[in-house]
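Dear H.,

Thanks for agreeing to be a second pair of eyes. The structure we're designing against is below in token form, covering all 140 positions.
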């Protein structure tokens, strides 16, 4: 097949580097996403979707120098934000449920208390569960 254009040579003064903890982050994130309810039964993603997205690889390239636990946490954040986007799209945008979408978004700040001694409500969906977990692991 003929290409519509020829890619120019890209000047790259530094070689791409890959975090050596990639496999650890991939394994951790699959278990984390499953534990948050983002995979089987979510109606949004299956493990095959998460595997195909390969957020661990993305994060290993964008954060080549952090340690294993930090890379896993960063990867969980990436997974959360992309799952949030897909969940919101399927649940509220496709159905044009503006009131439900507003109520959903209005609850999210409850899972990010500035005072960590403030209790958070019981999560009602994987997005809230993931945000509550990530906030508690990131903010202290």
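And this is the sequence the design step returned. I haven't edited it by hand at all.
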């Amino acid at each position: 097949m003929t290409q519509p254009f020829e890619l120019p040579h890209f000047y790259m003064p530094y070689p791409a580097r890959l975090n050596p903890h990639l496999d650890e982050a991939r394994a951790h994130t699959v278990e984390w996403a499953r534990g948050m309810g983002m995979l089987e039964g979510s109606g949004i993603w299956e493990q095959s979707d998460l595997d195909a997205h390969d957020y661990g690889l993305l994060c290993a390239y964008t954060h080549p120098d952090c340690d294993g636990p930090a890379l896993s946490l960063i990867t969980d954040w990436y997974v959360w934000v992309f799952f949030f986007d897909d969940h919101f799209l399927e649940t509220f945008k496709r159905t044009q449920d503006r009131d439900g979408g507003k109520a959903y978004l209005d609850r999210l700040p409850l899972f990010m208390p500035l005072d960590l001694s403030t209790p958070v409500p019981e999560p009602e969906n994987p997005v809230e569960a993931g945000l509550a977990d990530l906030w508690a692991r990131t903010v202290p």
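Two observations from my side: The chain has a mean pLDDT of 95. The helical segments are 22-35, 47-53, 55-62, 68-93, 98-107, 126-138.

Warmly,
E.
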